[in-house]
Amino acid sequence: MPKVVSEYKELARERILDSASKLFYHVGYHNTRMDDIAKSIGVTKGTLYLYFKNKEDLLIMACQRNVTLLEESLKNAIKSDFLDSFDEFFEEEMRMPDYVRFHWIFSLTEVETNNRIKEILAESYRKYVDLIAAVLEELMEKQVISATVDSVLLAQMLIAFHNGILTSMLQGLGQDESVSMFKSGIRLLLSV
Amino acid sequence: MPKVVSEYKELARERILDSASKLFYHVGYHNTRMDDIAKSIGVTKGTLYLYFKNKEDLLIMACQRNVTLLEESLKNAIKSDFLDSFDEFFEEEMRMPDYVRFHWIFSLTEVETNNRIKEILAESYRKYVDLIAAVLEELMEKQVISATVDSVLLAQMLIAFHNGILTSMLQGLGQDESVSMFKSGIRLLLSV
Amino acid sequence: MPKVVSEYKELARERILDSASKLFYHVGYHNTRMDDIAKSIGVTKGTLYLYFKNKEDLLIMACQRNVTLLEESLKNAIKSDFLDSFDEFFEEEMRMPDYVRFHWIFSLTEVETNNRIKEILAESYRKYVDLIAAVLEELMEKQVISATVDSVLLAQMLIAFHNGILTSMLQGLGQDESVSMFKSGIRLLLSV
Amino acid sequence: MPKVVSEYKELARERILDSASKLFYHVGYHNTRMDDIAKSIGVTKGTLYLYFKNKEDLLIMACQRNVTLLEESLKNAIKSDFLDSFDEFFEEEMRMPDYVRFHWIFSLTEVETNNRIKEILAESYRKYVDLIAAVLEELMEKQVISATVDSVLLAQMLIAFHNGILTSMLQGLGQDESVSMFKSGIRLLLSV
DNA sequence: GATGAATGAGCTTTCATTCAT
DNA sequence: CATGAATGAAAGCTCATTCAT
């Protein structure tokens, strides 16, 4: 019985987080009312407080969830140890909903204010660096790329380039352009 | 006489914009009270409304001002037509206060909501692309870099890389690391 | 179930409108604070906004309500087709609370500014003219009054006289004097 | 010298009062800003305070001035002791600017709040009653009208009718209709 | 679990008034 | 006499949060 309840609650939580994420992305955290979130999933304000302590908690949980979704997507794409697994990752990322893909950029706004968000993003950043650096080392071993540069620095450069493209998309860069820019960019950075 | 008045008012405007920019950056637009801005420069709330229509107007003007400051900084640094004028630009940028350097990232949050901000950032983006593409073409002519790639695409890649580094800095990347990453990254992207 | 809720809300609306009407009359619309209205019925400001969009909306609804209350009072009094049904109407009117009886005079202040108020009062004026003209025609048919004058013009004259007495009351004319002035006045105007 | 200054000041006062009256009538006392009044006569806010203690003082003085203007107009028209001197008065009144003619209706709004306004209007009311009652008595002596009714009561009825027509004009009654309604109405009330 | 009426602190904005020049 | 920059008290309104049902 508690299992069932728990599953139901988990489902409800997910629905709230998903809808909140969309709203936070599309109209901004501060422009989103608890009422808007509630209405968007057909419940009333009070219900949200059964699942989340307060609005900030909801933001943090949404941030955490989107970070996790993206990380899982990366891990899946990156399992092949070839260069184009990066391409696959980016294409996979492009398939994710915008409010998941871009959430971190908007969460950055809260970084100076909210320590929990800062930690989540920083930890995620570290994970990405580690993961990609490991892949790069494999590629170096297999001599797909040359081993002259520090793999961590290279990973950081790839991430920066990737993140930069996403910000450009927010300023109007098209998706196809982004994909091709990503592909040729990382090859230049890896001197392939 | 009116000239004097106008100078005084212009100065007052500048002080408000500068202080507002700092606060918008450090605690966020929505977390900044008109009262905070007023107090930070030793006046009262009412005074702000002598210079700006409302809070949103203040945000837009601050955004515009920071964009302009950055653009001027770029134009000055980029006047020499050698490759390391890019380095100079980035170093110059690092010397600017954080609330000017990073303002656009935080303004992105308002992009989905505020059309005026969107226009300002989009126009600035276009200017940068044009300016850098022009420099790149000069460098191609002088055969400092090879002329095989489209200069606009290359410019967009450089900008993306640059912007990505800034986002990484917000996630904890140090300033020295950023500078060296920028220098080596653009050389890789330009295949120099 | 929704019926019950709706009844409760309807009741709450009525209480707000009634108390707001009183305050608007006694201290003036612009001198009445939302806080005052709220406190007068033992709720807080926020509650008012659950029932009315804003202060102006509250004014318009109060105006509408008072117009309706007066109109109903007129219709009831006027059902007998004798001359003294006018007397009954005026006496009935005197029994209504001052803030209902005089509201229209105070609403006139907003007429130049607020189109909705203007429409409400203008429509009410037309209704009164029609209603009274119809009664006058009946009285003419029954030869209670002579049929030499235009019934609409006569109705307008009666209304003007009636309204004028109300303004005099605001300038200090006593209620008993008003009643007797009304009774003899309309008889003079109708040449009875 | 002081005479000249005083004349100048008197002129300035008049200009302010006149312009303030217009604005109070056309947009309402509470919707009129000191700034609006100042701008309307090409000075700055501060100047108003050289001539009037505060905004309320300005209202009271404006009210007083308009009352006086109307009273003088009445006295001039009424000097002939024939019945149609009433007609002349009304026609004269129609020639005055609306913001003088209607000011008292709008001042009524402040009656419940502002004792000074209340006194001014009450005193004016008394003056009118006395003046008209005196005229009526002359007319009774000359047997222009029958002497069966109390002249004061009759005066009050005439005033009420007159005031009522003005309120009707605010609700849309045309000027020509008003004049003819006035003329026939007072003849009915006086049984002439 | 869910509701939704009520709260009240806190925000942006307005504007009559002052006063150094 | 006149200015106009500055004030600050006070207003309307919002919305995250609570809690009796």
**Residues in β-strands, percent of chain A:** under 5%
Report the C-alpha radius of gyration of chain A, rounded.
Answer: 19 Å
Task: Give the helix/strand class of chain A.
Answer: mainly alpha
Number of domains of chain A: 1
User: Which pair of protein chains has the largest interface, and what are the residue counts?
Assistant: A-B, 41 and 41 residues
Helix-strand pattern of chain A, N to C?
A: HHHHHHHHHH
Q: Spell out the CATH superfamily of chain A.
A: Tetracycline Repressor, domain 2
Q: Percent helix among the residues of chain A?
A: over 70%
CATH topology of chain A: Tetracycline Repressor, domain 2
**CATH hierarchy class name of chain A:** Mainly Alpha
Mean pLDDT of chain A: 89
Shape of chain A: elongated
Largest sheet of chain A: none
Q: Say what oligomer this is.
A: homotetramer
Low-pLDDT regions of chain A: none
**CATH level-two architecture of chain A:** Orthogonal Bundle
Q: Please tally the β strands of chain A and state the result.
A: 0
The tally of helices of chain A reads 10
Structure, briefly:
Chain A has 192 residues and is mostly helical. The first copy, chain A, has helices spanning 2-27, 34-40, 45-51, 55-77, 84-95, 98-101, 103-111, 115-141, 151-170, 175-189. Chain A is elongated and about 60 Å long.
How would you describe the overall organization of this protein?
Four copies of one chain form a homotetramer. By secondary structure, the first copy, chain A, is an all-alpha fold. Chain A has a single domain, classed as Tetracycline Repressor, domain 2. Helix content of chain A is 78%, strand content 0%. Chain A has ten helices and no strands. In chain A, helix 1 (2-27) crosses helix 2 (34-40), helix 4 runs antiparallel to helix 5 and helix 4 (55-77) runs parallel beside helix 8. The relative contact order of chain A is 0.09. The interface between A and B is large, with 41 and 41 residues.
